[in-house]
Write a structure and sequence with these properties.
With 435 residues, the chain is α/β, with parallel strands linked by helices. 36% of the residues lie in helices and 26% in strands. The protein binds NADP nicotinamide-adenine-dinucleotide phosphate.
């Protein structure tokens, strides 16, 4: 870097959990970042909701602050968007592109719902949008997919991409606590939002699954094409039953490519065998397990959230984009040349563990087996545990694990089991993945 190198002008929009840490890194590591980028990264302004709350920004000269995110976005070479949500983040990013600025963002909700609009706008303006922090926080995963694995064919991704749900499921497993109790504790510890819907109902994981699948399969996957089920319906009985069969329950984002036929992307809880690398991902940690034709299996693991870990990925993108601005080239943009169809999740092939409360009487097994056979679904294992004979009826629990079968056939089995005379209730249904 020559001493006369003009600085790259950087605007940060949003100064919350991540924004604050990004500003800190920019200030504390200014000299190193200048050498790595090839020019000083000069902070030209910070957009906040209310600049009057100066008490919050002791480390920052109030002259940097503005409440006009879109106006500030027009005055920089690189805009770092960390407001989150759709608006005003979307308008500010589009304004940045119009003004010739590149953008770094961590906003998975915006990319999941408006990604194509933003990628097209960046391409038309001849600028870049980088978003490593949008999936897996600090974990490098999008650039490895887009760049390191550009010579390979990715066939499947299994990801634990939401720390809140992983924390809740982990505590339920290790401490035998119910969902509601663990969630309350997670909220007290700051691991879950006051409104936990986006996490526990799988919306956050679905946005990330859409981004991962789009990058891995060179195909646009809109977030509403991702089949989604959260974890709020899971009970301690589901967790205990998983343990009994050598599994742990994880909320997985699963993206699969079926040759040239299409891709299937889904988010749901699943039993993962204890020996699978994803089973050992504990607490709020994230991991993304990638299967590629030549590379085989790879796992990317680390802190999927938190201001400081996430700031690492954001500033990494910032340095990369700054280098491109200095050298005049562009990094790999959106790659959608394959344009594969996004297939309905019903076409996914999976296995189920089904827990049935049945009458403890002869012929039950035959009746249940007939239901599976009628939909050409074969059974791998059946375990029976005796009930307590409460209410004068002798009941037992049957835990059936199927072989692989199409989701639609498995769904019909579950529906028919509810109507089977000897079945008192279908107590739990959960997919089995990672085998
Ligand atoms: N936190 C993480 O661990 C993490 C990890 C990966 C990715 N991300 C992503 O990073 C982004 C930021 O997340 P975060 O956790 O830092 O969120 P956050 O703590 O809520 O910060 C967002 C900040 O933007 C401010 N803001 C709201 N409207 C604004 C406006 N019109 N102009 C300027 N500022 C405005 C908010 O102010 P008020 O609080 O006053 O509304 C808040 O200070 C999100 O897209 C998120 O999905 C976060």
């Amino acid at each position: 870097m020559s001493s006369s190198q003009a600085p790259i002008r950087v605007a940060v929009l949003g100064c919350g959990t991540v924004g604050r840490q990004v500003i800190r890194l920019l200030q504390e590591s200014a000299s190193d970042l200048a050498w790595r980028a090839g020019a000083p990264l000069e902070l030209v302004g910070v957009a906040v909701k209310d600049p009057a709350e100066t008490g919050l920004w002791q480390e920052l000269d109030p002259a940097y602050l503005t409440d006009d995110a879109t106006g500030l976005a027009r005055q920089a070479d690189i805009v770092v968007e960390l407001i989150g949500g759709i608006e005003p983040a979307r308008s500010a990013i589009l304004a940045a592109f119009e003004a010739g600025a590149s953008v770094v963002t961590a906003n998975k909700a915006l990319l999941g719902s408006h990604g194509p609009e933003l990628y097209d706008a960046a391409r038309s303006a001849g600028v870049e949008i980088y978003f490593e922090a949008a999936v897996g926080g600090a974990i490098p995963i999008l650039r490895p997919i887009r760049e390191s694995l550009a010579g390979d064919t990715i066939t499947r991704i299994l990801g634990i991409v939401n720390g809140t749900t992983n924390y809740v499921l982990d505590r339920m497993t290790t401490e035998g606590l119910g969902f509601a109790e663990v969630l309350r504790q997670a909220q007290e510890l700051g691991y879950a939002e006051a409104d936990p819907t986006a996490d526990v109902e799988g919306f956050d994981a679905a946005s990330k699954a859409a981004i991962l699948a789009s990058s891995a399969f060179h195909t646009r996957v809109p977030v509403d094409a991702v089949s989604r089920q959260g974890i709020s319906h899971l009970t301690l009985d589901d967790i205990v039953a998983a343990r009994a069969t050598g599994h742990v329950v994880k909320l997985l984002a699963i993206a699969e490519r079926r040759g040239s036929e299409g891709v299937i992307v889904r988010v749901h809880p699943a039993l993962v065998p204890r020996k699978h690398p994803l089973a050992s991902v504990r607490g709020v940690f994230n991991a993304i397990y990638v299967e590629a034709e030549a590379a085989g299996e790879l796992m990317f693991y680390g802190r999927g959230a938190g201001g400081r870990p996430t700031s690492s990925a954001v500033v990494g993108d910032l340095v990369t984009v700054a280098r491109h601005r200095l050298t005049g080239g562009l990094g790999p943009g959106e790659s959608v040349y394959l344009g594969l169809p996004v297939l309905p999740a019903g076409q996914a092939v999976t296995r189920l563990q089904i827990r049935l409360l049945v009458r403890d009487q002869p012929g039950v097994l035959a009746g249940v087996s007939k239901v599976f056979a009628s939909h050409a679904v074969s059974i791998e294992t059946v375990r029976q545990t005796a009930g307590d004979g409460a209410n004068g009826v002798d009941l037992a629990t049957l835990t059936v694990v199927t072989h692989k079968a199409p989701e639609t056939a498995l769904g019909r089995v579950v529906a028919d089991l509810s109507d089977e005379a000897t079945v008192v209730a279908v107590a739990g249904v959960i997919r089995v993945e990672g085998e």
